[in-house]
Specification:
The structure holds two protein chains of two kinds.
Chain A (H helix, E strand, L loop, with lengths): L1 H17 L19 E4 L2 E11 L4 H11 L3 E8 L1 H14 L6 E5 H7 L23 H6 L10 E14 H6 L6 H7 L3 H15 L8 H9 L18 H16 L10 H9 L4 E5 L2 H8 L7 E4 L7 E9 L6 H11 L2 H11 L12 H4 L11 H11 L9 H18 L3 H16 L3
Parallel strand pairs in A: 2-3, 2-4
Antiparallel strand pairs in A: 1-2, 4-8, 5-6, 5-7, 5-8
Chain B lengths: L1 H8 L13 H34 L2 E2 L7 E2 L3 H7 L2 H33 L6 H13 L2 H11 L7 H8 L11 H29 L3 H9 L4 H29 L3 H7 L12 H10 L4 H27 L3 H18 L1
Antiparallel strand pairs in B: 1-2
Helix pairs in contact in B: 2-13, 3-13, 4-8, 4-10, 5-8, 6-11, 8-10, 10-13, 10-14, 12-13
């Protein structure tokens, strides 16, 4: 037991030392929890809850509101950078000390924390089953353990993916530019490939920014990805993944895909001057487009992707095992992720709701955006959200994803053989999976 | 604690028998307490994690969950991984490209700054040092624009003037290395220049005066006085640069932007271990890589020492010059 304690402490120190940005390295493992205290105020017990989050959620305002109605609960929200937040939480989980009562966890990190199920409160034991029908099935399911018996977190926002496209490029290529007509013309991925060839021929511009988002779009529409629910690697046996890979490789070889890596300055600049025809991005990409291309108002439009939709991003609120007041914490996250409050968060910060009832709210349905030619953006996204497949990612998802993307990037930059690259990528995946 | 006790026993200042806390002891305890914050913090955040890495290198550990002892398996995994060897090769090449010119150019710049010919010395000193204190993120953005893959990128346009085709700076074997080495060179040149400058300024002027009286040319002065007396500084910067070169991490990471975009052309040893730990959650193999890197750095530092110690005639004369200086002072 002592050695285990030391090991955990050591682990947290190794990580603290290697992550310069890691600010709260737990150095003791004495089990004092996360420092919540129950003080008495006017004869009444006041419960303090600590919550860690990232980004701008506007939850502080909601917490104020909650505290007004619940004078016995005090909620402290601390916000940090996306990576710092998740790395710190990982360290705290690993060490078994230093985690807040409530933490916001992005969907990709839900996968990474899967191995530490015992460090979280099973929300099914708190009665969360009753809430399930409020939320999108696929979103709920990602927050569960592989066997559906354990619930890590309650859903907050999501990132349904759609097709953003440049109306000017579509027009120049002689394609329709009206969102409904575009959706009709590009119904299947074959249509998409044809449109890509036309655009390349007529305008010389690539269809997409890079190889990543087009591959992801096809990947997200498959019923299964890289691992099955028993965590076996099934990527080789899964024809859908090879199909997505082959499709992307074919477009690369046809020369119709761009090579602007995500988040680079050039990628952003090309958004402004129409360097590519489509961007297969999530709902939150609206903000990036507006930010990178403030003068391209009316040139970007939104329509559904061919053959379905996917999800990119979004989070959950989890309760850690360290919490001394899981009941009160649960009441709070249940309240803040409720349809009513998701609606408020949407209006306030644009967090895209995962609670389906919000999609029928009038202000949601009627929400239009002048930048995107007055389209009903929220409503379009909600349609995409309903089409997302319920898939299991698995905790080693990022390893496989990284190596397959590497293979596609090699096909593009080195003009190497896609089959060769695929089998090398699979070999690298297996080699890395062996190590953990 | 035991160190303190042992030391106190050898102290012969026990004036009042029976009283343990003598004045001398008080001073000593005070001294140790004064320096203790560093040692305590270092032990917790420096020494312990380092030692723990050695322990982790023999475990299979995903960061969460149980550790399992696996013997030398982690080392075998790494040694059999061609990407690890590729990362060693890359780090070596980028180290050579990035740091060797740094030391040569740094020395020349320092010499120029130290000479009487240049005006606005403090301006140049600050200007050369500027890149070192510039935010690495800003540097990365600027360099990713300069070394853009697009034919319209700054460097590609420049090369186009000379008829060299557009280079894919992000993905080609040498493009990546040249781009990152340039970044390292630019960022660390000023730092080395300032150290060399300090070294040059510590060489007493009377040595040059004596040499001039004896009829030594400028070249002879540099060769027989400046370089030999600068040797400790050269040794110091070479050590630091070598260690720094092996730890190359931030520059390639920010140049590529995302860990996932780092191809095998730009994979350095530290990036490799970082990826093991923080993408793959394989802390055992990551630690094993760190341990191997530790020994590589030791080998290279020793090699450096041996090589710089054998600088032949110049080194011998350096000793002679220092001896002469000492004699001069004694008189």
């Amino acid at each position: 037991m002592i050695t285990k304690k030391w090991a955990a402490t050591g682990m947290s120190l190794v990580m603290a030392a290697s992550l310069t940005a890691c600010s709260t390295a737990p150095t003791s493992n004495s089990g004092t929890g996360s420092g919540q205290t129950a003080t008495t105020e006017g004869g009444k017990e006041v419960i303090e809850l600590k919550m860690g989050q990232f980004g701008s959620t506007g939850y502080e305002k909601l917490a104020e509101e909650y505290m007004k109605d619940h004078p016995n609960v005090k909620i402290q929200i601390s916000t940090s950078d996306f990576n710092d937040h998740h790395n710190n939480l990982f360290t705290a989980i690993s060490a078994g000390s230093g985690a807040p009562d409530i933490a916001m966890v992005e969907v990709g990190f839900i996968e990474k924390y899967r191995g530490a199920q015992d460090r979280f409160v099973n929300l099914y034991e708190m009665g969360a089953k009753d809430l399930q029908s409020n939320y999108l099935d696929w979103k709920w399911s990602v927050g569960e353990s592989a066997d559906h018996s354990f619930l890590f977190g309650l859903p907050t926002d999501i990132g349904p993916t759609v097709m953003y496209y440049r109306t000017d490029i579509f027009e120049a290529a002689g394609l329709p530019s009206d969102p409904e007509k575009v959706a009709e013309q590009i119904k299947t991925w074959d249509d998409f490939a044809n449109a890509a060839r036309t655009i390349k021929e007529k305008t010389g511009k690539p269809m997409t920014d890079n190889v990543e988002l087009i591959y992801n779009a096809l990947r997200d529409q498959a019923p299964e990805m890289y691992f099955d629910r028993a965590n076996n690697l099934i990527v080789e046996k899964n024809p859908a993944m090879k199909k997505a890979y082959d499709y992307t490789a074919k477009l690369i070889q046809d020369g119709v895909l761009g090579n602007l890596a995500l988040w680079t300055p050039e990628w952003g600049a090309a958004m402004a001057d129409g360097g590519y025809a489509t961007l297969l991005g999530a709902s939150w990409m609206q903000g990036n487009i507006k930010g990178n291309a403030p003068d391209a108002k009316g040139k970007w439009a939104i329509t559904q992707m061919p053959e379905g939709a996917g999800n990119w991003g979004g989070s959950y609120l989890v309760i850690t095992k360290e919490s001394k007041h899981p009941k009160e914490a649960y009441e709070f996250i249940k309240w803040i992720t409720s349809p009513d409050n998701q609606y408020k968060s949407f209006l306030d910060q644009g967090l895209f709701p995962s609670a389906t009832a919000v999609y029928d709210e009038s202000k949601f349905k009627d929400y239009t955006d002048e930048y995107f030619g007055g389209q009903h953006t929220a409503q379009i996204m909600s349609e995409a959200a309903k089409k997302v497949k319920n898939v299991y990612y698995g905790e080693n998802f990022s390893i496989v994803q990284g190596e397959i993307l590497k293979a596609l990037q090699n096909v593009q930059s080195k003009k190497s053989d896609p089959e060769q690259e695929w089998s090398e990528a699979i070999a690298r995946v297996k080699q890395q999976l062996e190590r953990k | 604690m035991s160190v303190i006790e042992r030391n106190t026993q050898t102290m012969p200042v026990r004036t009042k028998p029976g009283r343990w806390m003598t004045e001398a002891r008080k001073d000593m305890v005070f001294g140790y307490l004064s320096i203790s914050p560093f040692f305590i913090l270092f032990a917790i955040f420096g020494l312990f994690p380092m030692l723990f890495s050695f322990y982790l290198a023999f475990q299979k550990f995903s960061g969460i969950g149980e550790m399992r002892y696996v013997g030398w398996q982690n080392f075998r995994f790494i040694i059999e991984d061609p990407l690890f060897w590729k990362s060693i090769y890359n780090t070596l090449i980028m180290g050579l490209l990035g740091t060797a010119p740094q030391i040569l150019v740094g020395m020349v710049l320092a010499y120029a700054l130290n000479s009487a010919l240049i005006r606005f010395k403090s301006f140049f000193r600050v200007a050369f040092f500027m890149p070192y204190v510039t935010s690495i993120l800003a540097v990365a953005i600027v360099f990713s624009v300069i070394f853009s893959n697009q034919p319209s990128g700054l460097m590609n346009t420049l090369l186009g003037v000379f008829g060299v085709g557009p280079i894919s700076w992000n993905t080609s074997e040498w493009g990546v290395k040249v781009a990152i080495s340039t970044m390292v060179f630019w960022r660390w040149l000023g730092y080395n220049t300032i150290i060399f400058l300090a070294g040059l300024q510590s060489i007493p002027n009377d040595l040059y005066e004596a040499a001039r009286i004896d009829g030594a040319s400028t070249r002879q002065q540099i060769w027989y006085i400046t370089l030999p007396l600068l040797k400790p500084v050269i040794l110091f910067t070479t050590f630091l640069s070598t260690i720094g070169a092996w730890q190359l991490f931030v520059e390639p990471l920010v140049f590529f932007g995302r860990l996932g975009d780092v191809g095998e052309e730009g994979m350095t040893v530290v990036l490799y271990l970082y990826r093991e730990a923080f993408r793959n959650n394989a802390f055992g193999t990551a630690s094993a890589t760190a341990v191997l890197l530790f020994f590589i750095i030791i080998v290279f530092t020793v090699l450096n020492y041996v090589l710089t110690n054998r600088t032949g005639r110049a080194g011998q004369l350096g000793k002679a010059a220092r001896a002469a200086k000492k004699r001069g002072e004694a008189v």
